[in-house]
Amino acid sequence: MPAKKRQNDPATGKKNKKEKRGELAVINSDLRDEAVQKGMRDAWQSKESDIHLDCEPFPHCQITHFLQSESFVEGLQAELLQLNFNTKSNDLYKFQQSDDLRERKEHHISQIRSVVFGEFRVWLSEVLQVDLEATVDISCAKYEHTDVLLCHDDELEGRRVAFILYLVPPWEVNDGGTLDLFSTDEHCHSVSVVKCLLPCWNSLVFFEVSPVSFHQVESLLFEWVNEMYLDPRYQARVQQEFEESSEICLPSFLQEEKLRQVRSALQSSEIQWERKGPPNKRCYGCANMQSLPSCVQECWELLSSESFFILLSNLTGLCLHYLCGDEDESENEDGKNETENRDGEGNTQASASNTDADTSTTEKKDKGPPTCVGELRRWMHGDYTLLHDSVKREYALDLQLHMGCAGWKSEFGGFTSYIAHDEDEELLTVYPEDNSLALVYRDKDTLKFIKHINNSSSSHLSSQNTSAFYDFSFNYYE
């Protein structure tokens, strides 16, 4: 908000130097009340719960209406949105962050900085009964679709308290972005999410940093994927098994509610299915991406997102994202974005990258975004794919997520068969299994085809009031 012009003093004709230049940042007056401070101080020290204070799974506090003036909060948000944001991305997080706000001159930003460094810091020190230094790290983070901050404890040298001031529009749990708090075991290792704090306009959350203050910012992964596959310890076990055999099937991969929504949407008449050919190479239905219902589109975006690339890297040990593994090995030779059709099957290109061109970094331009190609396919009686020489052979991780094929039997066909080039020996067979994520790493000399679906499968599916099953099929490249 711009400063008001000084008015002349009617008596002297001179400008009034005491004229207020702009609205001040003022925290909620209730926080200055001695009774409130004493109640919070006692609750924090005794580890008892209060209306905005909870000590499970670790002591934390949520203050609604943190700043007194709504118009000031709106002005603060407007100034922050004008800042330049840099993409921050590694194995732990992906979001956009501003530079340090300590040197910014904008009115609202300098005001909130003054309050945080001064009055709020003193208030925190009194409530928590800890000595807090004048050093405060303060920046602005912007989370977009598929962004994430995975489980961590915030323990850095000298850090005592972490806080978040939310400047979000009306928010619901389904929007994601909740602050998830983890329980811990006797060894102070994170176990599982036991509490989720919903972002709310002008609300502030703070907690004392400790060896057990594990938390995360929820992303699309946590909304969709079975939580056991997000557990680092379970990921390590999956990775070990995958490294031994180069293939694995992960049952119950999607959360049940999401699975039901997508499965129902796939059977609706809303989706336009196009026949893929020619018949001497393939015959099956492929979804027109412009016709996907919202929940199916979200599932597609999940499987082609950067956060999913990182998850797959953790599950397989492959370097599917330039931030995973050795950077030199993950860099493209020509440093360009790969946009060509990679597998010769006419698959849709799904390149996971930052959509904000202004925030793209030199590092991203040099390495190129992670790349995959994929299709959403419908399989019916008579469908198949054949081996053919036009397939571009290279190392890749194949993913199939099947839906609508409960009770499938091998004699129905529809399974994926892997064979060595110029040999008849079958190396591996992947059978359709409802809500099972199949991952197979293949080399340049390994080919695959989908076995012809015969009459038996058609009659089987008809008994379940459907005539098809479906799969999300992706190929990921290192």
UniProtKB/TrEMBL annotation:
Q: Where is this chain compositionally biased, Basic and acidic residues type?
A: 333-345
Q: Which cofactor does it need?
A: L-ascorbate
Domain Prolyl 4-hydroxylase alpha subunit as annotated: residue spans: 59-226
- Give the signal sequence positions: none
UniProt entry tagged with the keyword Lyase: no
Q: Which UniProt keywords apply?
A: Dioxygenase, Oxidoreductase
Give one Pfam family: 2OG-FeII_Oxy_3
Q: Where is the composition biased (Low complexity)?
A: 348-360
- Note the SMART domains from the entry: P4Hc
* Transmembrane helix found in the keyword field: no
- One of the record's GO cellular component terms: cytoplasm
Q: Which GO terms describe its molecular function?
A: iron ion binding; L-ascorbic acid binding; peptidyl-proline dioxygenase activity
* Chain positions covered by the region annotation Disordered: 1-23, 330-370
GO terms of biological process kind: regulation of translational termination
The entry's protein name is 2-oxoglutarate and iron-dependent oxygenase domain containing 1
- Supply the source organism's classification: Eukaryota, Metazoa, Chordata, Craniata, Vertebrata
